[in-house]
Amino acid sequence: MTTQMDKTNSITIAIAWCLAWGDKREPNELVTQTRQALNQRKELPEKFQELMRQVQKLQLEEFPDSLEKLKALPEKYPEHWNTQIGLVYGGATKIKQYVFESSKIQDIRGASALLDRINLIDLPAFFNHNYATADNPNRYNAECNEVRAWLNKNFNKDINLSEVLIPELIIYSTGGNILAFCPAAFVDDLANAIEKRYTEETLTANSCAVGDKFKLLEIRFGLLREPIENTLWLDWYRQNYQQPLVQAYFGNLAKNIKNSQTERCSNLAVAVEEAFADRKSFNEITTKLAILFHQRRSGHDYFNRPKRRYPPMFETHPYLIRDEGERRTALVIVHPPELPKESHFSEASARKHLVGYKAKKGKPRIPGWYQNSQLTWKSPIIEGWVDKFKLFLTNNPNLAQKYYTGIEPEDIEISQNLSHIANASKGFIAYIYADGNNMGGYIQKIRTPKQHQTFSRDVELATEYAVYQALADHLHPHELKNLNEEESESGLQNGDIVHPFEIITIGGDDIILIVPANQALNIAKTIGEQFERILLKEVPLTEIAGSETIIGSYETQSDNKPIEQKKIHRYKPIEATISKCQLSTSIGVLITAYNTPIYYARDLTEQLLKSAKERAKKLRKAGYCGGTVDFLAMKSVTMISSDIKEFRKQALLKNLKPKLKLYAAPYTFHELGGLIKVIKALKEAKFPKSQLYQIRSLLERGKQTAILNYRYFRVRLRQGKPNLQEYFEEAWCQPKDAKNNGNLAPWMYDDGSLEDDKSDYPLFETIWRDVVDLYDFIAASDDDSDIHEINILTSKTEL
């Protein structure tokens, strides 16, 4: 076995490194030689290679199906039964509280960028990993060295902490969290360093990190008792798997078998062994760390570490100027030319504002107001999301041509505030909040550190590139028009061309975007569909992301049981593509005016996301693994007081006979495509807008009245009748009984077959209200007016 082959498996090197270090704090000769070989990319020492072979042998060890076989393992691996390996898990907590503390988009942008910077650059730098960008691989080398200098200055008992860590120890560092191996003697040091880095850089962001020591056998077979014969093993589980406490820990086996899509799990004996092996693996180790993480975050004592290792402390005084969002004493900064609307903020807010400025401008220079403040914190290099998006377009010439439409990238500015994004959609923007479905269920099946590493990487790639693809497909650079004096104070003027979107964060399976309202649903639909297609390798990343590719397998295994598409999709169920990806996304979309308070918009968007995820969970019972979308078009801030679910129940659910539901959200991605087609068809047919509203107003009068009035309006139509019949009546309003050739327009029948609580069913629902609400935010066809005007402007400039 060659060393070069072993080097490709970072997990094997990581575990062998911890074994070579042992439980002492001082490095030994083998560790020193191995570090030199790794740094110089030379052949590893023979003794270290032997450790790697032992690790690989253990990882390939067959799962013991009896306690007797388990008891034989310490005798088979006597040298590693008592050897311990450290594992640390940590990251930022209460992220939204920190990011959305301010109501200003620049501070929100800065807070998000600062957390991303720590998670993606600073923490890996602890492990001697230098962050590299495709356009400049050495851009961050100096800053990574500064991070390591900070680490060694603060954690250098017996030895500098950076000398203990190597890049291969990182399992993943994304989505705001890090999971990494480390030598057993340095678990507390590394956990403390993670927490301290977040506090020193952000001052106010909450963070938490925990760690523990595990035997090498536990990395493969989960938590073990000592002596090992006291471990509750498979024979015990076979006898007790139906007990409530056992089900709470190992999962409800009967439910899993019922929901299983594999023939293998349909056999009870096999299912019992699979469920036990899924839990008694590396998965059980990470579960223990997750429990410790939540306990520490909640304030519980954790061994010899204080509850809050590095709590932020700020002076307050009733007569001093205070920060905008909190009660922190503010530092007075007066510089009208650069900050016309800002005159004071605390140091924590100043850092957010500065980082947001650098991300917004895409330039490294420090603004004058910060230099004059005499603050000593050194702002890091910031790679904004727009920079990453532009790099993505560079690697995809076809998408770049479609997005730029002949405009030079250097001529396009970053949107400075929300009004610039809203300028592309008549003063309205949309908040898009997406989150992954079935992530926890999938992780519970992951048994090895390598699978954890692969899963994290694949989800990160699929999420990020799905967003870039959606933005490139549906947006174009926008020429600012009709800006008022206040909107022009940012430095951009009428005629300037901007990227009409704001990426707040893309982390793990979480996405928060702000886009023009008129393309929001198209973007949301593309994100959800592309996420699944990328994971299924239907969109090879080598075509859009260079050499990167999806490693894992995420396709569902069919049990040959037919899926009832009519239970899942209300729009042309026969034409719907069967979802094949085990992972998907649910998305909440809030369309609102750009001056809607951000904290209020965020709360409503989270409610919409929750509603979409609830719908996805119900559809999963019928075999649908895809994503869902819930949306709300809020044309006035006072439209909803606080709770969307309660608003819909009180205002849009009518207890008539039969019961009527005056909306149809949430939608599957297939249904959302059908909804968009209805609106486009009505617009292209120039359907009278007044009649749209009239039909909507008659829905509340009852099922028969609404049907009668709908048919009356339809018969009198001079134009748009074929469009209405094809895209609305035949596509959406067909009766459940296939023998009935009529339709229920404008209603759809719902028997509540997917609901646990059937007290409100059966009922009739309709998409008509959703059509009316979205009518102003969906173009009849691809709207190229901005592109045309920009091209004319460019041509005139060239002439």
The largest pleated sheet is described as: 6 strands, mixed
| Gross geometry | globular
pLDDT < 50 runs, ≥5 residues: 1-7, 261-265, 784-799
- Mean pLDDT, all residues: 85
Count of alpha and pi helical runs: 34
- Proportion of beta-strand residues: 5-15%
Oligomer: single chain
User: Which class do the helix and strand fractions yield?
Assistant: alpha+beta
How much helical structure, as a percent, in the residues? 40-55%
Description:
There is one protein chain. Helix 8 (105-126) crosses helix 9 (141-154), helix 8 (105-126) packs antiparallel against helix 10 and helix 29 (669-684) runs antiparallel to helix 32 (721-732). The protein is globular. The strands form five sheets. It has a six-stranded mixed β-sheet with strand order 11-12-8-13-14-17. A four-stranded antiparallel β-sheet has the order 2-3-1-4, sandwiched between helices. It has a four-stranded mixed β-sheet with strand order 15-16-19-18. The protein is 46% helix and 12% strand. The chain is α+β, with helices and mostly antiparallel strands and 799 residues long. The protein has 34 helices and 19 strands. Residues 1-7, 261-265 and 784-799 have low confidence and may be disordered.
